[in-house]
Amino acid sequence: MNKTVNQKAWFLILPVLVLVAFSAVIPLMTVVNYSVQDTFGNNQFFWAGIDWFREMMASERMWDALGRQIAFSAIILAIEIPLGIFVALNMPKKGFWASFCLVLMSLPLLIPWNVVGTIWQIFGRVDIGLLGYTLDAMGIDYNYTQNFYAAWITVIVMDVWHWTSLVALLAYAGLQSIPDAYYQAAKIDQASRWAVFRFIELPKITGVLMIAILLRFMDSFMIYTEPFVVTGGGPGNSTTFLSIDLVKMALGQFDLGPAAAFSIMYYLVILLISYVFYTVMTNLDKRDGH
Fold it and tell me: Could you tell me the maximum CA-CA distance found in the chain, to the nearest angstrom?
């Protein structure tokens, strides 16, 4: 017997589809259009094919920015994931202090990105910043506007301060979902603290950790505002990540064709790596289901 399917539910999501079309699809098509054409002004375009993509693939500037971006994201993940898990494991599980810690951990996440950059820009200044003045008084040469290592350390510490809370909160939520029966069984077996973490807590929070890794990778790989406000991409090009380099190319040099090709390649890299994470998460869910 044929069943009648009611398609009226599509009208409920139609406003969302329209918003997505105007906010994502149409701008993306505009970028694609610029990536295969050249213009000399006066709204006159000429077909360029894949010339801009070839130019970007051969661009040492883009590969250098990609290398810096990958290094930054790798360092961020290597620090924030273990640190977030450590913080979550040591947070109170219930009572007043649990609520207090949750509120405290949420505060950095509420600060806008440009404000975070401004805070650390002032904080690291040698003349008026607490961090810069203290390090200078201790005889440590710290100048994030002129020193390569100081700039990288400042940007990394700033991101760790801003986003470790997200990993900690996700890991904490995963830990809270573990039934007490697991801990009681571990206590009866006289399992060590490491054994409890290795065989009970870590497997149970793997799903939320994959979400945390995915979110932190995507955000760190697209970071722009914070390092731009603090260092402006300097000293030299030492902190010129992909997003900063792309903005300089598009707005600073007004090379719309190469910038459009650059942005599409940038988008595809993020999409590919996000798909890998999604596949891994899906396989983990299937394994846990069995």
Answer: 84
